[in-house]
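Subject: for your reference before the review

Hello V.,

The reviewers asked for a structural picture of the protein, and I figured it would be easier to keep everything in one thread rather than splitting it across files. Below is the amino acid sequence we used in the manuscript, unchanged from the supplementary table.
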Amino acid sequence: MSQLLHTKGLRKSFGAVKAADDVSITITANERVSLIGSNGAGKTTFANMVTGYLKPDAGSIEFLGKEISKLSPREVTRQGIARSFQIPQVFLQLSVLDNMLVAIACSHGELSFTRSSHRAEAIDSATRLLERFALQAYCDRKVVEMPGGMRKLLDIAMALTATPKLLLLDEPTSGVSVDEKFPMMDTVSAALETEGVSVLFVEHDMEIVQRYSKRVIAFYSGRVIADASPADVLDDEQVQLYVTGRRK
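And here is what came back from the structure prediction:
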């Protein structure tokens, strides 16, 4: 399979805390991978290094064969890596459509005070994405009026305006009600089905991990302690001891 992302020997410390300790991971095309681990295990640090929000102390990050560890978040996005956030990065007082149009303008380097973002081609592109995420009914509503799950979907739809090859989702079901989480993830999965994008998501909900990922990478104390299928990782003794708290 075609290699997209390859990290080798990543290290990152915050004082005496090792948030990443020799992390080497390869992600290939069209994968669905979840990152699991307790709070502080290193999974979000890994995601932040890959997307340029943190610089590693040592090691390398290659995307499509190019070293990207020194690039800014915006430059990383231009290389083909996009992300959503645990707390959706949206403009609450703007409409859903206007949020999409801002994202499109930013992703194409066309955000301007003198040029309108309400161009026909941009509106068409935004509308198509909103339809795929079942958000067309909210098009003209302010984001502040939307429930949490819908805001998460909008944040992910905005990330896709950059047409990424790799999409990182930071705890997509965090703060989403039990009734919303599976329908929301079903919508995300269906929307991404034809995108040809690999998905790497940080997740605490093991039901979501088992249902929506093909591969699981488990972190503990800044290290990868398991990397395999969901069934194999969740059956791993170290994972049960340090991550899920379940024992045989």
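For the response letter, the relevant points are probably these. The mean pLDDT is 91. Residues 1 and 28 are 6 Å apart (CA to CA).

Happy to draft the paragraph if you're swamped.

O.
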